[in-house]
Amino acid sequence: MTRFRRRALVGIVLTVDMLAAGAGIGRASAAVPADPYAPGRHVLSFPVAGAARTAVVVVPANLTHAVPVVFMFHGHGGTGAVAEWMVGLQALWPEAVVVYPDGLPGHKGITDPEGLLPGWQTVAGESGDRDIAFYDTMLGTLRAKLPVDSQRVYVMGHSNGAAFASLLVSQRGGGIAASTTISAQPSAALLAASPARSMFMVMGVADPIVPYAIQKLSIPPAERKLGADPRSATVTGFLRSEPGRGGLELATYVHPGGHEIPAEVPRLAVAFFLRHTLSAG
Length: 281
Known about the structure:
- The chain is an alpha/beta fold.
- It has a single domain (3-280), classed as 3-Layer(aba) Sandwich (Rossmann fold).
- It is 30% helix and 24% strand.
- The protein contains 10 helices and 10 strands.
- The protein has helices at residues 3-11, 16-23, 80-87, 89-92, 130-145, 160-172, 188-192, 212-215, 219-226, 265-274, and strands at 40-48, 51-59, 67-73, 97-101, 148-158, 178-182, 198-204, 234-236, 239-243, 249-255.
- It has a 10-stranded mixed sheet, sandwiched between helices.
- The N and C termini lie far apart (41 Å).
């Protein structure tokens, strides 16, 4: 099975749990290591509103200078460990702290109308803002334990996790440099309520879960928000980059596939993040 096909299968929400179980990469135990913030991969527990929330946290080897942080939020029905397996950001950006948080049941998704599988809030106030509080706790803890570069904090998500990443930009965008949203895009209303931040939007024209016809509606309001000029766009393969005002950028990757994460996208997301810092817009 090719790498692209494996990710394509994992990207379909209803198959995530079965594949994770078969590969032995479900929700990891949160045993606390002797030094949970030493370089390496850790599964950590964070107390949030009386509950223990968990995340895979990968700490880079060199902590002698300020380091960027990337949060990658899994799709509905997934786990942080599955997201790690799907994108492997730490191998592509070994200088960064990479965080793969675990969602909780409760959000009623397209393929899970009863909200039985792990997921993320998508609107402010949902579930008492438990996931925004989780993000705040994780970022605050990382800042206390590691030399986090406050100008280089990024959010990324797939499907329901992308919707949550967009919500975070609207609610916590003052401290977020850029975002990558895969297989779900922010609404015009959410964009209007968000600060102007560089965005990388990934969408499949054959997406059976979040139709491309809906996702592409986010492009014009994103162009207006960032002051991006489509006439100045550069195109390489499926990737289109539009420069915006003050160093902002709207990047889009429209591929012929469906709801999966294309194999090329994690590398492109890292390159996109490297182009943007908070101070540069």
